[in-house]
Design brief:
- The complex is a heterodimer of chains A (351) and B (320).
- In chain A, α5 packs antiparallel against α11, α8 runs antiparallel to α11 and α11 runs antiparallel to α14.
- Chain A is mainly alpha-helical.
- Chain A folds into two domains: 113 residues, no CATH class; 209 residues, MetI-like (MetI-like fold, Orthogonal Bundle).
- Chain A starts with 7 loop residues before the first helix and ends in a 10-residue tail after the last helix.
- Chain B has 320 residues and is mostly helical.
- Chain B has one domain: MetI-like (MetI-like fold).
- The longest helix of chain B has 35 residues.
- The two termini of chain B are 16 Å apart.
- At the A-B interface, α1, α5, α6, α7 and α8 of A face α1, α2, α4, α5 and α6 of B.
Chain lengths: 351, 320
């Protein structure tokens, strides 16, 4: 094949390049298509939050916004492939400005912020419904936000501290029962922890932690620990022994070597598990509702759940606005920390 | 084995190290992970209801609610209808979600995104991780908006624009709803694991295959898939277990509907589910116990699969 002499090499190269570009385009098209069912609902939520007036959601705004944004995005994607790097930035800025202008022109009068009035008005649900039904009296959203923040942040702090200490010890110290401990941890790591919600409820009841925020904080921490300890052990395993050795020969104790020399090396691991733990604590629903009877404390998951139960048929806009506020911290954190998250490997579990 | 100059530290400070580094983890795991497993077993053999007291402790009454002796049956007992229905629904739910999304589609996503330029591939992977990163209540809410049976539902709007009749998926195809809803989340874990496995294949293997005239399909079949054997079995087992016990999204999307009452849902709705939970703790614990036993068996299976030698490699510095 292609054995004949002649100037076919350039031809072949061009054809191969063209085929490659076609494959790439097909793959990108396929992935774009299958990603639509994921992206469209999120986009709709944003549109509802900014356009819905009391009553149902109006989709004309959604389609109109899509009619503006989809061609622009596709155009930008094509331009990105064609243009030189310095023109890409200009094209991007131009597309953004055009999108903003068109949105203002065609959607301007529909966009409004009144669905976000719950941020300033503590009694918004009661005003819509006369009286809240599903979950009793609603708190102000800031109470729920604060509780969610306390839950997520303190759980993150505990998880990172405990998993880092344990991961270091398992990575660097020989002690009796180490193999057994690691094997047990591995079994726990694969164990379906959510089946334990009933006995955990009972233990919280007996220890008097029921209906306090402490219960979900400690429970979620404990259930995540095996996984995160393995992640941290993996990060510690990757730190060269020599660094620690030289610290030790310079007269540092094990604890000093850990604190001053090794710990900075695993910073990205700590950030990674911290981000995961925060997102998990921020979204927790099962162990929050399972560990309280009645409404002793509100977090964002229960707040949104009961807002939905109460006003979903009446006021889509409010529900969407609450969802948007609730989902934003997770998304920002996820986007910011993406490069750390991709560094995680399942420590010993990775084959 | 290089040994630094030996330090003399007594046993007590070694114990102090253990307590400092490992103590917090051990305490937390003992109280909130190990103790609950034991408590669950004890509760399952009691008659505990809303009063939260152990009544007539060793009793198998909860399990009698699940199956009854029947000499005519093959194994000497037959399942009661509610439980056999739950078993059946669990099986359908796990097999279809796993087969379509968590393994197959995850593999497709990993293969296609790694074939694209890095940044494009990373973008699509980020999109597919979006549902996993957003709070479960929000994700369930999006689903309620999409499958809303009125003409406001996003799906019905699209169907209406295309000239079809509106559908009520939650009523007519409840299992399909929970399979797809869980699958769109579940695919991302496999995608991540498979992607990193594909990345770790040495590039020269691809070059060699291509030089030998292999096309994309042949490369996938003979270079990529063999490297994915262990990640594939890991994801299959791990996700089967995770799906078997998962009820969060089912509960948030379907509520306590009989049509999607899998085993995990049954255990949850009978005991703790907000506003409808019946407080039948012992009954819920009995069902959980079955799931836990399956869980332990599978966890041990995983343990056989895991790379034990590298995991248990002894530390190289030992200074006391």
């Amino acid at each position: 094949m292609g054995g004949e002499a002649g100037p076919n090499w350039n031809d072949l190269a061009t054809r191969a390049r063209r085929r490659r570009r076609l494959t790439m385009a097909l793959l990108t098209g396929f992935l774009t298509l299958v990603s639509v069912p994921i992206l469209l609902p999120y986009f709709w939520m944003v549109m509802i939050a900014f356009t819905a007036r009391s009553g149902s959601a109006e989709t004309w705004a959604l389609w109109r916004a899509l009619a503006i944004l989809v061609p622009l995005t596709l155009g930008y994607a094509v331009a990105y492939q064609i243009l030189a790097p310095r023109w890409r930035l200009i094209a991007g800025a131009g597309a953004l400005a055009l999108a903003g202008g068109l949105m203002a022109l065609f959607l301007g009068e529909a966009l409004h912020l009144s669905n976000f009035r719950f941020l300033a008005n503590p009694n918004v649900v009661e005003e819509i419904r006369g009286q809240a039904t599903a979950g009793g009296q609603f708190p102000w959203v800031w109470d729920a936000l604060l509780n969610s923040l306390i839950l997520a942040a303190s759980q993150t702090l505990i998880v990172v501290t405990v998993a880092t200490l344990a991961g270091y010890y398992l990575s660097r110290f020989a002690f009796r029962g180490r193999a057994g401990f690691l094997q047990g941890l591995l079994v726990l790591q694969a164990f379906p922890a959510v089946t334990l919600v009933i006995p955990i409820f009972l233990i919280a009841y007996w220890t008097g932690l029921l209906n306090t925020l402490v219960a979900p904080i400690l429970v979620i921490t404990a259930l995540e620990l095996p996984f995160f300890i393995f992640i941290m052990k993996g990060f510690f395993d990757a730190v060269p022994w020599d660094i620690e050795m030289s610290a030790l020969t310079d007269g540092a104790t094990r604890r000093q070597a850990f604190r001053i020399v090794v710990l900075p090396q695993v910073r990205s691991g700590m950030i990674a598990i911290g981000v995961f733990a925060f997102i998990k604590g921020w979204e927790e629903y099962v162990f929050v509702t399972g560990l309280r009877t009645g409404n002793s404390y509100w977090v964002m998951s229960t707040y949104l759940y009961y807002i939905k139960e109460d006003v979903m048929g009446v006021d889509y806009g409010l529900v969407a606005a609450v969802s948007l506020i609730y989902v934003l911290p997770s998304l920002c954190l996820y986007l910011f920390a993406q490069k750390y998250l991709t560094q995680m490997t399942l420590g010993g579990v990775k084959g | 084995m290089h040994n630094p100059r030996p330090r003399r530290r007594n046993v007590r400070s070694a114990h102090a190290d253990t307590a400092l580094f490992l103590g917090p983890a051990i305490v937390l795991l003992a109280i909130f992970f190990l103790a609950p497993i034991v408590v669950n077993f004890v509760t399952a053999f009691s008659n505990m209801e809303q009063t939260v007291r152990f009544e007539d402790f060793p009793t198998t009454r909860q399990f009698d609610k699940l199956w009854k002796p029947n000499d005519a049956a093959l194994l000497g007992f037959e399942l009661r209808s509610g439980f056999s229905r739950a078993l059946w629904l669990s099986l359908i739910y796990v097999v279809f979600t796993l087969g379509i999304f968590n393994v197959t589609f995850a593999l497709i996503l990993a293969l296609t995104t790694t074939a694209l330029p890095d940044r494009t591939g990373a973008f699509f992977r980020a999109v597919w991780l979006l549902p996993r990163m957003s709070p479960s209540v929000v994700y369930a809410l999006l689903w309620l908006w999409v499958v809303d049976s009125s003409d406001r539902g996003l799906l019905n709007q699209i169907l209406g624009a295309a000239g079809f009749d509106p559908v009520n998926l939650r009523l007519d195809h409840p299992m399909a709803v929970i399979v797809v809803a869980n699958g769109l989340i579940g695919a991302s874990l496999g995608m991540i694991i498979f992607t990193s496995a594909i990345r770790s294949i040495p590039v020269h293997l691809f070059h060699a295959a291509r030089a030998d005239g292999a096309g994309p399909l042949a490369i996938t079949r003979h270079v990529v898939l063999p490297a994915l054997r262990w990640p594939l079995s890991y994801i299959t087992i791990y996700q089967a277990l995770a799906l078997l016990v998962s009820f969060e999204y089912i509960f948030l999307i379907m509520g306590p509907a009989r049509s999607t009452m899998t085993m995990a849902m049954l255990s949850y709705t009978k005991s703790l589910a907000p506003s409808i939970g019946g407080g039948q703790y012992a009954y819920g614990a009995a069902i959980s116990m079955i799931l836990i036993v399956i869980g332990i068996v599978v966890a041990l299976l995983m343990w056989r699969l895991a790379n034990m030698k590298s995991l248990l490699q002894a530390p190289r510095i030992e200074v006391r």
